[in-house]
Design brief:
elongated; 10 helices; 63% helix; 6-stranded mixed beta sheet; alpha/beta
Amino acid sequence: MQFLELDKYKKRVFQVLLALTIVSGTVFVFFNYQRGQSALALIEMAIVILSVGLMIRVNKIRNREKFLRIALVYLTFFLSVMMFAFSVEGVSITVFVWALGIPLISYLLLGVETGFIMTAIFYSLTASLFYRGFHAHVSMVDSIAYANFIACAFVFWGISHSYEHSNRFAKDRLNQLAVFDHLTGLYNRSMVTKLFTKAIESPNTHQQQISVISFDLDHFKNINDQYGHAIGDEVLQRFSQVLMEQIPAESSAFRMGGEEFVVILPTSNEAKANNLAEKIRKAIEQDLIISGLPKAFYVSVSVGVITDWVKSANLNSMLKAADQRLYQAKQQGRNVVVSHG
């Protein structure tokens, strides 16, 4: 699972951009009105008002998808106003310098794919408007002038694209490190609270029970000490693979640290949780064969199970109860499931 959370830095960039739009837009409304460009002044006033409304809205947004929709609305309107300004009769050639910001703000706010599309559309419109208005301009009679404009535009586009692409790759990598255990590929313990809360708040589980199953590999320290950490890592990886093969799709598996693992099983009941725990225990006992371990050595796991109703479920209490039952399993000789205690 990939968590597409709202990037607080993109949100901050958007807030700064909205503030600049409000300030600069107000200034341009005044100047364009003084110059007799009433239509342009009214459109700029509209984008100032829109920006004020969006500023209020953005401050409350926590969802990434909503943020992207609002950013797309703003950017489409903002760039459309820019195109209108470019098309006004008598406009200065220098106004087209604003077009260089198109890829920058498109990629920063919308990401690689949508940013590319927005840049392609509005760069094409800009090129058309520029040629229509200034192809006969004294400064554009030499083809080298067009080459300079085109090269500069593509430099800004290329830098914006490569930066956002690299930035997204780095953030995806950081997200992987923050969410998943690098050795086993399971969720790490930092995700337990988030996914437990998500499970109990789901409408599908409101009248259901939820189970927490705690696992601890038996004699794991001896495996590391006698056969080396490389073999120990392979045991952890193979156990995690078996775990993911056995649990239902709606469940979540976590490596809590060392040889300790937890599974959160929503829409469950005590019998279902016990059966799953026993099924995993047997799969480890019978099927977990590690090439670096002697044939007489069998990997086993002790298991503690707790089930509660969603409406009264508390994560810390359930984890504590599951650990207590896991401890009882160890006391009973290991390689057993304990669900009462």
